[in-house]
Amino acid sequence: MKSNCKNIVLISFVLIFFSACAATEEKLDFTKPKMQIPKPTKIVEKKKGSLYTRKGPSLFADKKDLQIGDIIQVRIDESLTSDTNNKRELTRTDETNLGGGLLTPMAGNVLGGTVDKYANKFNRVAGVNFNTQSNSTNEGEVKSSLDESFSTTVSVIIEETYQNGNYFIKGNKQLLIDGQRQELIITGVIRPYDITPENSVLSSQVANLKILYKKDGAEKDALQTPWGTKLLRKIWPF
Known about the structure:
By secondary structure, the chain is α+β, with helices and mostly antiparallel strands. The protein has helices at 2-21, 112-126, 218-223, 227-235, and strands at 71-100, 128-161, 167-177, 180-190, 200-202, 207-216. Helices cover 21% and strands 42% of the residues.
């Protein structure tokens, strides 16, 4: 009975292990996105004898009056460059020397010479002497160099309009080619004055810009560190 239970546990473990190692097919979700609710229509204010008001549009800039659910393009052109060189060296030296006798000779006495003789003899046998030395050196040097660039164009949807007229945008782009799944998600806040006549805006003009770009598939598996190696790095003390 015990041997059967052991076999069942062993077979279950093997099945779980191989199922975890099996490749999963990448899929895309084609469900309909949530509906974008347009903002309410503004009430037209009556102008009091002036052609220009502070609340009106600028006379020197082309402002795009877009609604929630409208689509614009974001031209992403981002680069990241970093060059770091850190060097650290720590050295510590400790030395301790403790020594002394248990008995102190007497002075200023007739028997001083005799007591001194026996006291020195006793101290040589039962005296205390403790000496320690320690040296510690720690050196470290880290060098890192990073140079990356990312350029693409993605269409985004206006999801919210703020009181000052700015727009909150969000876009999602997914590709599935030969089992390689790529996904790009972007969010941020833009000004209507930065939108070009071609209905596009640069990524450098997007405030609170957040870009997520990830890959899934055979390419990611080839570049990803195995879980066993990650575990060893966490518990390895040296």
